[in-house]
Fold this protein.
Amino acid sequence: MKNIQILIFLILSINISCAQLGETYIRDDETINIPETINYEIKNIYSDVEIPWSIEFLNNETIIYAEKRGEIFIIKDGKSIKVENVPEIYLRGQGGLLDLELHPNFANNNLIYISYALGSREDGGGNTAVSRAKLIQNKLTDLELLYKGEGNSTRGQHFGTRLQFDNDGKLFFAIGDRGNRDKLPQNLSLDGGKIYRINDDGTIPDDNPFVNDENTIKAIYSYGHRNPQGIFLHPKTGKIWTNEHGPKGGDEINIISKGKNYGWPKITYGINYSGTTITDEKEHPEMEQPLYYWIPSIAPSGFAYVSSNKYKKWKGSLLTGSLKFKYLERLVLNKNNKVVYREKIADSIGRVRDVKESPDGFIYFTVENKGIFKIVPKE
């Protein structure tokens, strides 16, 4: 019986794949007018990169970006300056130097937040950490470790993580399940497979969902996640949105709610890479459903909401990179937050790692071994 179920799943996946991997995809159960597109060109503004995991903007003209190998650079006018005093990282598999996030009051306090894999000489393993420092010209000073996932592992997968401040000045970040799906994501006393929420100084907010529960990690905000790789703050609702890697099939978009269980690995739309079943359950009354899931998996990375008037016909769309299929994807939602249209931007450009809107409203994205690109609308 299990073999028959797997065969049916694979047949359905093949059919969906053919529909979803074209230049555009419209849901069969949704009648919409095909959204108008825009004319644009893609400019490579800086090409000397390896794995540019994340970008931020110090101002309209100045980019700061993190290389997974453990270096940070400031880019202005096509020239780079290496940032000094970057913390030592644990470079293993998917782990390394990961995300950057500026404090909401960066212009006055110069605080920058860094997520990275931090290792231990004692056991040879590592886990995801979040630190902050002051960026003074091209140097980091006053480095403080704010949070580190307990339980080091020598496994090289699923470190997460992205950083995002909300409108209340709370910092959200993720730690993936570290390849230990059966133990970590559903256990509130262990790190891994969670979204976390801390104050800007690393202390725990009094209104975190599990702050008064015994034997729980107080920083946890939601759980049952596999490996979140994209995050943004919705400019209208103030909600935190994430995308995350599923197994084979079942990459997800989720709107993060306080104290909720997002199901992994108890429920999933994916299967093991070998083709075997993880679980027959795709929903559970006490677990959240994704806003959207991709079959086949695209390996999403980076995540942004288009709010800029420079791209009026794209405004309100979502953008995410595809590591697997090497393009930037635009997703259109209806008023009920249902994905009704998808299209490829920069098809076949390479492994898109991050995508962001700059303060002056332009869209930038990074591509492994290719560069940092800017999408320029054309009249």
In short: Helices lie at 2-20, 106-109.
